[in-house]
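Long-time lurker. I teach an intro course on protein structure, and each term I like to show students one example going from raw sequence to a predicted 3D structure in token notation. This year I'd like something fresh instead of my usual example. Would anyone be willing to generate the tokens for the chain below so I can use it in lecture? Attribution to the forum is fine with me.
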Amino acid sequence: MQSLLSNHFKTLSEIPVSASLSDAISKDMKKQGIQILRHNHLLCLFAGVELVNDHLVDFHCRKS
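-- Reply from a regular --
Happy to contribute to a lecture. Here you go:
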């Protein structure tokens, strides 16, 4: 499965803790009264279901 967003980070310090999509979804959910999911939780969820590929480029399990 190809990730929707495949990043090309070379060092750990380049990997962001949020993305514009996760920020927007988190803000919308907060308006609706759901405050438990923060932007970094959503970004982890996206990575877990392979919507985002944020592995380092030299990681041995990187698919793309």
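Some talking points for your students: The mean pLDDT is 78. The chain is about 35% helix and 5% strand.
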